[in-house]
Amino acid sequence: MTDKIKVGDYLIVQRQKYTKLQKFTNLNTIVNLGKDQVELRLAENHPYLTTFHLVPKQERGKRLYTLDALSTPSEIRNLKELLIKESGNDNRNIIDDRQSQTLSTEEILKLREECESSSEVIGKLVENSKSFATKTEYSQEKYLKRKEKKYFEYITIRRPSVRLLADIYWRLDPEKVLGVRFDTLSQIISYSGVCSVGNYLLYESGTNGLLPAAMMNSIGAETGGKLVHMHPGNVAQKQALLAMDFPTEQQARCVSVNIYSVLRHYYQDKEAETGEKNSELKEVNEMADVTEEPAIAEQEEGINGTNKRKREETDEGTVATEAKQVKLDKQKQTWELDNEAAANIMEEKFDSLVIVAKEHPYSILKALLPFVKSSRPVVIFSTSREILTECYVDMKTEASVTYLRVTSNWMRQYQILPNRTHPDVTMSGSSGYLLTGYTIGN
To answer: 162-270+333-439: what fold?
Structure first.
């Protein structure tokens, strides 16, 4: 991790209050901000949090811009101080007949090409507005903010953080993170007690890597903490985890495995050690038959099937091919190595369990609870209160977890301005529910 922007990084491109996650894949990478296209080539080797001026490129029919780094952000002008000179007492005499602006659309487009900055364009619009001077100061500020948003020609490039990623995913589509809003994410991290020491177990089924990224961020670099990240699919969703650009040693302490595959691996090893059939393995297979994707089974059987075909080919081949086959038989695939690493951590047991699932979490909880040490936190998230109520009743009956609580976060943002303080008009009503408790010795 460096303090400078480099090719291969994930970047947060900010234009006023709008933020966007973009991977700086190569020097030809272009980020789309509305109708504007911005080349990122000249951002390379500049420090994060640098503010850039958008310089238009003379290409017909395209709003294409290149970047010019500002030496100081103070170069951005304050439009309120520049343009608001006199104001009206109220707006009662203003008629919205769309005739207040004397400039035509063609003249405004020409202004954008001729003026060097957005403040000049907005200044010309204000000069040619018949009603601007008669509006109240508050209405004038709203007008300037609206025009500034349209013509603003500065962006800031920031390093991804858990807060920024959570806000971006939530704004784009809450379902991309299973409805986990940032305030709920902070509660999950707080209740689970994730810190720099210990082993932690996470099951999530589709948050774009936001949950493992947040937990690894709390574990920190160059620490002893480990995370086993279980998921139901063939490949874990890791965009947020990759965007955080953790050091290699920190990434190595996050092991992502398919839940059914690693549980089979663990219980099969137990059977091999004891020589006795394991009832838990049967339960895992039954659970996997209902929910597991077919490709998982194919993945686990892939080596045997491949070896069978290769043995048939070696019957007609040479001795050299047979020697090569023996070498291939000994090689293990990445998912097998991950299963082994996760199983070793499972032997040590975990210091907390977090479940954020699309599915009903109770069967997953039953399968993973034996791997959690006693007196350790358990956190389950769901967008449905009824599902967590069912889990609450079942866990009370089994008496495996104590101090059970079902909670819900309700966060509302406020605009804080002189004489204009009020809650935001639009907001999300709920960010799901949490069931929390502590394990009893097992």
So the answer is: Rossmann fold (3.40.50)
